[in-house]
Amino acid sequence: MGKIIAIANQKGGVGKTTTAVNLGASLAVATKRTLLVDMDPQGNSTTGFGIDRDALNKSIYDVMLEDCFATEALCATELPLLFLLPANRDLVSAELRLMDMENRVERLRNALETVKNRFDYILLDCPPSLGLLTLNALVAADSLLVPLQCEYYALEGLSAILDTMKRVQDAYNPDLQLEGVVLCMYDARSNLSAQVAEDVRDHFPEQVFRSVIPRNVRLSESPSHGRPALLYDPRSKGAQGYLGLAAEVMDRQKES
Amino acid sequence: MGKIIAIANQKGGVGKTTTAVNLGASLAVATKRTLLVDMDPQGNSTTGFGIDRDALNKSIYDVMLEDCFATEALCATELPLLFLLPANRDLVSAELRLMDMENRVERLRNALETVKNRFDYILLDCPPSLGLLTLNALVAADSLLVPLQCEYYALEGLSAILDTMKRVQDAYNPDLQLEGVVLCMYDARSNLSAQVAEDVRDHFPEQVFRSVIPRNVRLSESPSHGRPALLYDPRSKGAQGYLGLAAEVMDRQKES
Ligand SMILES: Nc1ncnc2c1ncn2[C@@H]1O[C@H](COP(=O)(O)OP(=O)(O)OP(=O)(O)O)[C@@H](O)[C@H]1O
Ligand SMILES: Nc1ncnc2c1ncn2[C@@H]1O[C@H](COP(=O)(O)OP(=O)(O)OP(=O)(O)O)[C@@H](O)[C@H]1O
Ligand SMILES: [Mg+2]
Ligand SMILES: [Mg+2]
Question: Nearest residue of A to residue B160 by CA position?
Fold first, then answer.
């Protein structure tokens, strides 16, 4: 049965999409059947794989709001075991439409029921907010993975996403666990990075992944080539960082 | 009469708050009476000035939703001519409550009427989304300033915020202008930065500010000291970059 992992943090630009795309690619290369769901109206996970958002027949919007089957909206990627449920601009109006629906936080959970057993991992790339799209992801998820940029504002925002997780556990999804916090854009030369990393490890000793994703220009260049770093520059520190993270995620799965 | 400038971009982590805080400080140092309004539930502009969000009596939430006068919620900062209208966690529920209100996109515009003539500039720091908080800012604003991170995903998102500006002009605020696009986190050593900068200047020749904000560690360190870079390290390239931007904003004001 596929494990659904929501990749969320309301702080903007912390590495949610970069983590979703590159962790997804790393799991697929490790022979895990993987689905990446783009829950962000910006559609960055979709274009990160070179897919033209404006040329899509079906997207996550149709799956959540128009009763289209998830299988009808799936896109293949260059990696045989990695599929994408893409987003396009329709998603901008999703939160408004969801507001008026009965089961507005369960739409995604219900939609993924039909594909959950076809994948080993399903990753949900969330937008930078705590609105209905992120709530749908947390209700559908088995666990939450929080990318954390090693900067002051990002550290400040960590309690907000963890509070939201707790509220979702209490109200909708008691089995939701914290998969972990992954330190992103770590700059070994900067005191700030080291200080933030130390702070987070002190407060959440068990929850911070050992793998740290360094600031690495290959990670920011690869989306312009429509491919994950693993295909763009496999020897780069960025690609290697996410391979390490995938190994840890798979190890934790074995233990549980 | 104060000029209201919305600082917005739905892409996350591009430098909205850093621009709001440091442009605000630079305008105040240049003897302009300046108000910074924190429209983001994360409250980063508020903590960027060392203000404790949980100790506030009144915040922008009360001004927009509880008919509290803006003057009652103002906070002073270390700079005599710079004031802040702070945000706290109450703002998280603002978009939900605004949904049901008649004049839901005009609440901020109406609230600022009472203070507009006390300031030369009013800056609105927006959250990373195109929801009702950002819409309120665009309806209240005379112009829109778009911070643009010199990265691929950020470049992709530029058309979305400009489309939204056009929709707001057509429906609510015909006088809304584009103040300009400011290149942020520019890394002189990276081809990607140069490529993005070239692309943007080609597409929007008139609208890109000459001032470019370099990636500068002092800008990311200063929030942890609760002060703008101008007070934390005035000789830093980051502080100097924003002084240059302030000069350009003031020059454009003179021309118009
Ligand atoms: N480790 C890294 N090293 C260098 N650049 C990175 C790294 N991780 C992400 N980036 C770049 O930083 C920017 C922000 O990352 P990304 O878009 O993945 O964050 P996000 O949290 O998904 O943003 P949003 O909040 O808008 O959804 C992107 O341009 C990305 O290419
Ligand atoms: N020019 C710069 N050089 C170095 N660091 C920067 C620069 N500008 C911003 N930063 C840092 O990058 C991070 C993102 O910037 P900031 O929070 O201002 O972006 P934002 O657009 O307001 O984010 P959000 O979308 O979450 O509101 C912050 O940690 C900030 O300190
Ligand atoms: Mg993203
Ligand atoms: Mg901000």
Answer: A42
